[in-house]
Amino acid sequence: MLWLLLLALPCLGGSTPVTPDPILGHELVGIVGGCDVSSRKYPWQVSLRFFNKRLQLWEHWCGGSLVHPQWVLTSAHCMEPEDLEGCAYRVQVGQLRLYEHDRLARVAQVIRHPKFNVSKCVLGGADIALLKLEVPVQLSEVVSPIDLAPTFLRIPKGKTCWVAGWGDVEPGEPLPRPYHLQEVEVQVLGNAHCSHLYHHTAQCNSSGPLITDDVLCAGTHDQGPCHHDSGGPLVYLWNCTWVQVGIVSWDRHCGRRDLPGVYTRVSSYVTWIHQQIAQGSGL
After folding, report:
1. Active site residue 127
2. Which residue among the candidates 47, 230, 249, 268 is catalytic per the annotation?
């Protein structure tokens, strides 16, 4: 696999990264059609890092969200292969521009949802994971957890959500320096419509729907997540409070209206999230 050629996995010692040149070729799901984010707007946004041996730095790999001072929520497929331990990753919080004054937090534990299966052909499959940090981060105006959508919350189709990330600004075109966090608004689509749009792209035979109930779809013409936005939060303003309703999971064509982004539905897994945090924190 490509990442095994580019990346090494240092589990001991630290590293002080420098601002890198962009690297093409990663196969994860930036923001297409986005705008620079203003300071303090997304204090829960985190950058998940993986060590690039060739460049000798902790390179941005996926997005994520701070959901507790010691816990980060992301996509399970960002944490593949599953035999990697927490020491293979680092997390950066409170940063608008990648690699600017990095202070990377160590990861103590990776918890993937037990039902995640990267080989499943349906665009669902419990694509969710939690990272426990070695020590809690210090909360501030620029570092703060996001509230999670409750189990009963369903976002009606046509409603506007927001997604942010440091991924590609066009397919194959990395976010240029100074690597400023991008945001974009996307509209929610019904799952039946989304499944119909994706049906002709299926690469396997499936008797069930391609879009399962544990995901939601959202997209706007020429706007949406792209490579390296996986794991980032989809947020919605509900009762005057920002809540995370989705996790960037799949986007086959980076911001195309006819193939919207697919997000893990947080409300389907919020009970599991709270259980893991409580158990892992000794509550």
Report:
1. yes
2. 230
Q: Please, which residues have CB within 8 angstroms of residue 39's CB and are 6 or more apart in sequence?
A: 96, 142
Look at residue 224 and tell me if it is in a domain.
yes
Question: Cα 232 to chain center, whole Å?
Answer: 3
* Token output for 94: 């409170």
∠ CA(105), CA(107), CA(113), 5° rounding? 135
Question: Does residue 243 form part of some domain?
Answer: yes
Residue 268 falls in the annotated catalytic set: no
* CATH number of the domain enclosing 248: 2.40.10.10
Number of domains composing the chain? 1
> Is 230 assigned a catalytic role?
yes
Which candidate in 77, 113, 227, 228 is catalytic?
77
Digit-coded pLDDT (tens) for 39-87: 678 999 999 999 999 999 999 999 999 999 999 999 999 998 877 889 9
Q: Is the peptide bond before 178 cis (omega within 30 degrees of 0)?
A: yes
**Catalytic annotation, pick one of 102, 127, 168, 214:** 127
> Which range marks the domain in which residue 216 is found?
147-267
